[in-house]
Amino acid sequence: MRFTKMHGIGNDYIYIDCTEAETPSPQKLAIEMSPRHTSVGADGVILVCRSEKADLGMRIFNSDGSEALMCGNGIRCVAKFAYDHQLTAKTNLSIETLAGIKTVSLIKDEASGEVTGATVDMGEPVLECADIPVYSPVNVKRMIEYPVQTEQGEVVVTAVSVGNPHAVIWVDSIEQAPVHTLGPKLEHNPMWPNRANIEFAHVLSPSKIEMRVWERGSGETMACGTGACACAIAAIATGHCERKVDVILPGGTLNIYWNPDNNHVYMTGPAVTVFDGTYTPHFTKTD
């Protein structure tokens, strides 16, 4: 089985072309291929698929085998993968995800013609609790800077969905943020019926945020595209930031723009190919 390792500011996945043949047991494959010391190493596996509704489709499997609805860094890499592997000649293409169809515009280096990144129309953000979904004891319509009781005390949460659920928590220092202790506790908190990604963010200026993320199904990752969008949305909605925000993550920076004219969120960032390889799965179809 051939694969390509790619990353978007450190958020790395294993990409497999499934446009001609399906990949059996992608959940098991993600669990087997993701360990960093004993296998290929990645945050998960992304399948590049055919679509009857868009130019291409994508399916995302986290390192624990769970299927994700959307991946902002991953979709940029899917678009680059498709262009580089001649699955499409388009530089503006539609990609079907479990969170809906997203439009991706490729960015090419003027000198070499190489695809170096992309801008993704992430669609309209969701702030209504019922649609995220997230439960609150008093059934508030929107959970914006809302106090939540945890084993580590009260934290203030802003709930956002950008295709998948996020909890944004403002901290004084992202270096000392309780990512590995509070992150998994909040991910599995019953308030999130489908679990959630947990962002710990710090506002540096009206146009700049730094953040770390605990991703559901993967743990802490170098970056999260939907998480960066969620932090920017939370910052703008609470008056901390302007409509254009640079979000700094451990793996790099994403540029986020929440357009007031159509209410869509646009994310711009790099897409990088690391290496190509072949892999023989160790499980059998009957496992």
User: Low-confidence spans: pLDDT under 50, at least 5 residues?
Assistant: none
- What is CATH's topology name of the largest domain? Diaminopimelate Epimerase, Chain A, domain 1
Elements, N to C (H/E): EEHEEEHEEEEEEHEEEHEEEE
**What's the assembly state of these chains?**
single chain
- What number of domains? 2
What gyration radius follows from the Cα positions, in whole Å?
Answer: 18 Å
**Helical segment count:** 4
CATH architecture of the largest domain: Roll
Structural classification: mainly beta
Proportion in helices = 10-25%
Q: CATH top level of the largest domain?
A: Alpha Beta
Mean pLDDT across the residues is 95
Termini gap:
18 Å
Strand content: 35-45%
Protein name: Diaminopimelate epimerase
Keywords: Isomerase
Enzyme class: isomerase
EC number: 5.1.1.7
